Amino acid sequence: MRAHKRTKCIYRAVLSISLAVLCPLLTHASAAASVIQRSGLVYVPSHSVFFADVDEHLSWVVQPVDYLANAGIVSGTDHCVYSPEDKLSRADFVTMLNRAYDMEEYVGGGSFSDVSENAYYSSAVSAAKNLGIVSGDAKGKFDPKGELTRQDAMVMLRRTLNKSGLLFEPGDLGVFSDAESISRYAQGDIAALAKAGVISGANGKLNPKQPVTRAEMAVMLYRAMMLEPDEDGNPAYMQRDNVVNLCVGNVFYANVIVENAAQGQKLSGLYACEEMQGEGEDFTVKLGESRTMDQKVDWKNGILTVNGQAVTVAEDCDAVSISPYGLISGGLVSTGEAYSTAAVSLVDGIVTAVYYQK
After folding, report:
1. pLDDT digits over 25-56, tens only?
2. Burial class of residue 167, CB neighbours in 10 A (0-12, 13-18, 19+)
3. Residue 304: is it exposed, middle or buried by C-beta count within 10 angstroms (0-12/13-18/19+)?
């Protein structure tokens, strides 16, 4: 069982009608050359490029969600909607673990009495059961649609990591003010993940019996997949401000290392590119000065304006809804050139692309 191989995806930034604000066109980018780009522009989004409802107001979720979406591990609840605050079901979490850690070879044999063979999660639950990651109740039921508690999510994640060969040091639950409310069966797993930095709680509390949300799940799973040896050789998650998601033209790259980032520097927006290089899954970039980009988008009486300047709209475009995502920072990416004018294209009732010219 291994961690999911990271991939790069091509997408087109979009404006929207209804809720469809950002919708990626998911096709694999070709293998990267040693040098991706010298000069030109790159864009560091402060929002998700996959989901309209994961924006700069949920900054702690953006990078994990887009990394996992790009790798095909998570998907939305609706068209370009992630629903970060929704509660996660037991079946959905096991499905995500299966995608992340490639458990397919362990599928087979009996499952649980309440897991249909035709269910989308059937194979994932079967593999997780065979690996000892999940178990049923006294009646042999898994309760796939039941809400997953935070502590049970952590137990499943720790068991999965154990099966992938990672060994964790024992941790201390004393850092959580509600540690006494953690069930005994979960204490060791939670303490180990806390020591490794996979979980950190909120305001000093773990809230173990509360349902885990889709946002919380994404952060835990992302951190688990980013574990690396610390100075003692133990698996640990290390927060790095110089690791960002990045767009070059219409190609999205996850977890790019910014080599010349200042300590504590918060990176977002458009930058000159000194050089970007890498191949496979590992990319680095040296950024130049930040650049301004068109910010204000308005659609009124059939006229689209960018920073007060009317721009051309494709003939097949009937309507554009920019509320509540009215800023270009909510969806546009670098074309490698400066922005000034735009043309919008509509396909099947959805604005599918915004084309920018110098």
Report:
1. 223 333 445 898 888 778 888 878 777 778 77
2. exposed
3. buried
Q: If 0-12 CB within 10 Å is exposed, 13-18 middle and 19+ buried, where does residue 39 land? A: exposed
* Structure-model confidence comparison of residues 129 and 291, the more confident one: 129
Taking only the tens place, the pLDDT of each residue in 6-21 is 332 222 222 222 222 2
Q: What is the pLDDT of residue 64?
A: 96
Q: Are 317 and 348 a contacting pair, CB within 8 Å?
A: no
Q: What is the pLDDT of residue 48?
A: 82
Structure tokens at 73: 């591990």
Q: How far apart are CA 77 and CA 54, in angstroms?
A: 13
E strands of the chain, at which residues? 9-10, 27-28, 35-38, 41-44, 228-229, 235-236, 243-248, 251-258, 269-279, 282-291, 297-300, 303-306, 309-311, 341-347, 350-357
pLDDT, position 311:
64
pLDDT value of position 44:
85
> Which residue type sits at 332?
L
Backbone angles phi and psi of 78, in degrees to 5: -160, -175
Cα angle 44, 46, 51; round to 5: 110
Count CB atoms within 10 A of the CB of residue 207: 18
- Please name the residue ranges forming H helices in the chain: 59-70, 90-101, 122-130, 150-163, 184-195, 214-225
User: What are the counts of helices (DSSP H) followed by strands (DSSP E) for the chain?
Assistant: 6, 15
Reading the block at residue 131, the tokens are 């690996």
Peptide linkage before 235 cis (omega within 30 of 0):
no
User: What's the rounded Cα separation, in Å, for the pair 334 and 337?
Assistant: 7
Query: How far is the C-alpha of 268 from the C-alpha of 171, rounded, in Å?
Result: 35
Contact 51, 180 (CB under 8 A): no
Residue with tokens 């939670």: 190
Measured distance CA(131)–CA(201) in Å, rounded: 28
Percent with pLDDT over 70 in the chain: 72
Distance CA 269, CA 99 (A): 31
Contact 45, 24 (CB under 8 A): no
Sequence-separated (6 or more) residues with CB below 8 Å from residue 307: 294, 295, 296
